[in-house]
Design a protein that fits this description.
The complex is a heterotrimer of chains A (80), B (439) and C (222). Chain A contains two helices and four strands; from the N terminus they run βαβαββ. Chain A has 80 residues and is of the alpha+beta class. A four-stranded mixed beta sheet of chain A has the order 1-2-4-3, covered by helices on one side. Chain A starts with 8 loop residues before the first strand and ends with a strand. With 439 residues, chain B is mostly helical. Chain B has 21 helices and seven strands. In chain B, the strands form two sheets. A four-stranded parallel beta sheet of chain B has the order 2-1-3-4. In chain B, helix 20 links the parallel strand 6 and strand 7. The C terminus of chain B is likely disordered. Chain C has a single domain, classed as Fumarate Reductase Cytochrome B subunit. Chain C is built from ten helices and no strands. The chains are: A alpha+beta (80), B mainly alpha (439), C mainly alpha (222). Chains in contact: A-B, B-C. At the B-C interface, helix 2, helix 4, helix 7 and helix 14 of B face helix 3, helix 4, helix 6, helix 7 and helix 9 of C. The structure holds iron/sulfur cluster (2 copies). The site of one iron/sulfur cluster has 13 residues of chain B, from helix 4.
Amino acid sequence: MADPIKPDQILDLKGLLCPMPVVKLSMAVKKLQAGQTIEGIATDPGVMADIPAWARTSGNELLSIEQQGKEYHFIVKKTA
Amino acid sequence: MADNTAVSKALQVLERQLNRPLMAALQVCARCGVCAEACHYYVADGELEHVPAYRAEELRKVYRRKHDFFGKHLPNWVNAQDLDEATLEKMAEMAFSECTLCRRCTFNCPMGVDTPLMMRALRAMATASGKAPEILEMLADAAIEKGKDPAMFRDLFVAQVAEMEKELQALVGDPNARITVEREGARVLYVALAGAHTILPPAAIFWAAKEDWTLSIYEAANYGVFLGDTARAKTIASRIIDEAKALKVQEVIVAECGHACASLVWDAPIWFQEQFPFRVRSLVEVMAEYVQQGRLPLDPSANPEAITYHDSCNLARTSGIYREPRVILNAVTTNLREMTPNGLENYCCGGGGGLVALPEYDDKRMKAGKPKVDQIRKTGAEIVVAACENCRLQLGDLNAHYSMNVQITALADLVVKAMRLPKSVAVPLPNAAAVAVGE
Amino acid sequence: MTIQLVTGALALAALVFSISVFASRWAQMQRLSFAKDFSYPKDSALKGILYAFTLGMAPWAKESTRIHMLAYLRGIAFHVGIFAGLGALLASPWFDLIPTIIRIVCAVLTGFGAAMGVAGGIMRVVEHHLKAISTPDDHASVWLVTLFLAAMTLALVSSAFVPAMWVVAAAMLVYAPIGKIRHCIYFYFGRLFFGIHIGRRGVVSGLIEHAIPVRSEVRHGR
Ligand code: SF4
Ligand code: SF4
């Protein structure tokens, strides 16, 4: 998933434990304009399941999510 | 009034919630005021709004206007009040940000008034009328979504666990140590929280105790509980209950987390009106049992630091788990310093009731945590142990906010540290304590 | 004689009213749902209930009543007076048959109760937070009951006051089930549910350890 997307914002979620990554992400997404993207970097493996589930319920688009060593990177696009 | 949908929805929920215990709570308060100091919010600032009876009266006023003789005909006589949208919003904010449902007031009330039950009713009213904090709804909905389609993340989870298994093997020095996921017929189904920190240490303990266990793919947290929304709470809990039934386990063990334990052990059997074919216990109870049965090779001198234990309200007052942590701590530490008061009389850390997940109330939360900070400081402890994830998050934030300079950790972490392992390879535990939580 | 008959009939009618409204409240409570609890109990509910109604009411059993010891003892004395007063009320048609000594003991209890009622009424206005959470109903209730206790004390001392006492008692009995005094029946439910909670969930044994001073060293410490 080597994506060329350059996110509008980067959110450092490293060290945060569940549910804080999702909480912080959703707060940050709220402040975005529709169409903008945000990249989150977390260390809690729980995000690999939680972020996709959150994206589905919140109606935002998850462009990518992947593990890079001990970190988890994901990019979300605000849709509405 | 009928035009105001939020208000009428809230009132409908109040009617639906009216069962015997709620009715008792609404009727019995003598307004004697002795519960004031029971509440950590009141201890923190001495404000009238933080007297538990004051909070409860907010709901009672509305109830009386509808149902009480004087409330209907002479409202001022009993301070009865019609519910309007502004009041509903104020009450919702109070129920979600100024009460952590810690039950300390109930235990201190001569009548046994269940103020948290009323605050839960208020939360339910707020949730039904769209006045609940968005984040809690989002977390609950995300959990439900996960349950709808476990295939979406199952493989990924299994892969993550496989990596953890390697860490476990290194940690305990046994290449045969296993973490199985959803293995049918295991005696125990362990339900962790998201993240390795609640999986690896318990895995090491299960390994040492030779437990026949397997790991759930779900997390134990249940945000539906905080919303007072039984429908959502049930859906979230049913993921685990169905999983446990399918795997035919004898016991479900819940990670070190207060609300997760209380809701699965005590609430779920009532929600579902069913006796489950398995027992549900907290990891804390099980670890204490292992200690008492001598199933763990422990050396308390591994934890010589001054340590204090913070009782989670949901474990102590709600679930009767206050002895077990001490059994464990006495076996794995050498310098335990109790807070005053502690156990069943402990103060809430200020993070309960879902508050840690609500950044909009950070200030209130830090303020309400002050009594806990003072208690901890008085013990002179270097390490604060808590058997609840919400408490640990809050204690971590308090630690940073008040520069307490303590370490926050879970019971299982200390147990693992005290375990004499055959040829333990030094692998750093994914310790919640080392992590600076918050901003 | 007629004044006796009229006031006595008034008190009796009020008593019947009071009992029937209380009974209907009780029945209403029983009609409400109370979900069956299917959880595996950690200890016995009965043990919790017993504690809730006995040791759990001891002044030293709770932090709140330790802090507010005087206020709590005042409340207890007030309520002891009330129970004595109600007992006396039931016996009041036959006061002349009751031995003086019993009347005196009863008068002491109700008299002291009345004094404690006055103290309670005053507390409710001078303590800021207490005043703020009180409703007019709360003030009226404590003064009405206090008046009844005072009247009962006089009636116990001299039968000449019996008709006056019956009038006050009638007012109190009519007011009781519709005003704040009705908490007297909900008290049983409040304590019952609390007792079930602490019993089933294994909290009660820890509370007992706290409440029995002999074993207070159980507080785990350094
Ligand atoms: S909740 Fe209990 S302690 Fe508090 S004022 Fe009411 S009766 Fe008194
Ligand atoms: S449950 Fe806890 S936070 Fe809520 S009013 Fe009672 S003492 Fe305060």
